[in-house]
Amino acid sequence: MKKGILAKIVIILIFAYLFFPIVATLLFSVATKWTTTILPEGYTFSYYQQLFTSPEFIQSLLRTVYVSVITIALSVVLIVPSIYLTIVYYPRLERFFEILSVLPFAMPGVILAIGMIQMYSSGPIRITGTVWILIGSYFVLILPYMYQATKSGFRAINVKALTEAALMLGCGKLETFIKVILPNIIRGVISAALISVSVLFGEFVLANLLVGDNYETLQIYLYKLQKVDGHLANALVASYFLVILLLSLLLIWLAYRNNASAVRDRGKTS
Amino acid sequence: MNRTKVTQFGLELRRGGVLWIPFLPLMLFALGFEILPMGYIVYSSIHTSAGFSLHSYVQVLHSKYYLISLKNSLMVSVGVGIIGLGIGTVGALALRSLGEAWREKLLTLVNMTSNFSGVPLAFAYIVLLGVNGLMTVLVKEKMGLDLYGLGFNLFSWTGIVLVYIYFSVPLAFMLMYPAVYAVRQDIQEAAQILGAGRSYFWRKIGLPILLPSMLGSFTLLFANALGAYATAYALTNSNNTLVSITIANLVTGDIFPDPSLASALAVIMASLLTVSLFINERLRKNGGGTGR
Known about the structure:
The complex is a heterodimer of chains A (270) and B (292). Chain A contains 11 helices and no strands. With 270 residues, chain A is mainly α. Chain A is globular. Chain B has a domain of 189 residues: MetI-like fold (Orthogonal Bundle), CATH 1.10.3720.10. Chain B has 13 helices and 2 strands, in the order ααββααααααααααα. In chain B, a hairpin with a 2-residue loop joins β1 and β2. In chain B, α2 crosses α13 and α6 packs parallel to α11. At the A-B interface, α1, α3, α4, α5 and α6 of A face α1, α2, α4, α5 and α6 of B.
């Protein structure tokens, strides 16, 4: 009994610690005046209104959305078929994927960035400061997440049996992939894409070092805004966190639906 | 042995026909933006204008400034790793003893806060604990405590460590949560029946069971803190010398750019990361490490 209470106190303390900055940010973003009281003295949405009508904000948001969508689309197009082919035809190439998705852990953004700056600032390919280098580096950045989440989508079905059955029934190889495999793993792919969105929306290091002012992403805009207007920057942080919250909820819902449908299917076969 | 491997791979290739073609663009990207840049850093670290030499490494080892930035990073990462691990482990143990319905929900919340890092996190802390931060002012008015007068400064090491701990805790929590189940209820009960008190149990049985996973989690927390850049950059305007910030300044800074030196520091940092990840991998193979 005593132990249960102690555990609850510990959990409450840790959660208070973790959520304190988040709640304060959210409250501060709607506070008119908040200096010496526990809670704000009045509430307003004017900071959000100012933020969302600011052209600089819209521009940076669009840039981040643009670079994220292109990178993730490219990543899906290149990675999903490759994982499928690895499972069915080239099991040995799995090692290759594993190495690629472990490497970023030994090479954080800073190291990756200075390597790329040195490589691509001179010589035949000069792309430092352009959106191309950002897309390339983001591709590498999200590769581990894309690989893991997509792979777990593949793990949920028997890829080989499905492929063999489809081929035997006269389906072409491409048709098998598009009409049989893809619908079965699409949720894994969506999870992978959502995780990547949350990673890319929070990315600062590569953007700051590789393109900086030439391609001002959301995080770079936030970094600059913070020095100019604290209230607007705070509204941006609050909105950023709300987006992350939304993405997390979507991911949980997807995972839950996966589990629920798996349970249902098992029920059907037995 | 080797030969059969080769022939098997050949078989795989023939069976697939031209299906290896989709791998080409993927390999191109991986090569261009992951493998070659890494190789280039190694090359650049041993290549100066005078040709091949280890001059940059010698320079690092003889410069107080670079050694201090390495030492700072190591100390911050180790300290943050230990504190984060402590809080995360205690939290994971506490979470285990709650009801099942709560566990999943709370774990999802922790997972969500782990996304809160970098510039937004630094800014949230500035709003709270900056010179005119909400907490700073509130504590001053209500309790008469002048934090900054007492030597607290968010834009210094104190702040960096404070914020680093914040982003380490959710990670430690999630890494240790599966691991604490190794201390099974029946072991605990058996020890109790045999007369072991709570503290005796944790000292002699509980902690030794958890130790390999704790070490594994620590290596990941350490690596995460060592590689971090955005948080410290946003907080201290690149004044405090952490090695990640020093590396970036050496390449992008306008004053003394020295890519070769930056590469040497980067190689040293990457080696440290590789060693710590390797330790975790070994622990994991023996059933102890955590993550991924």
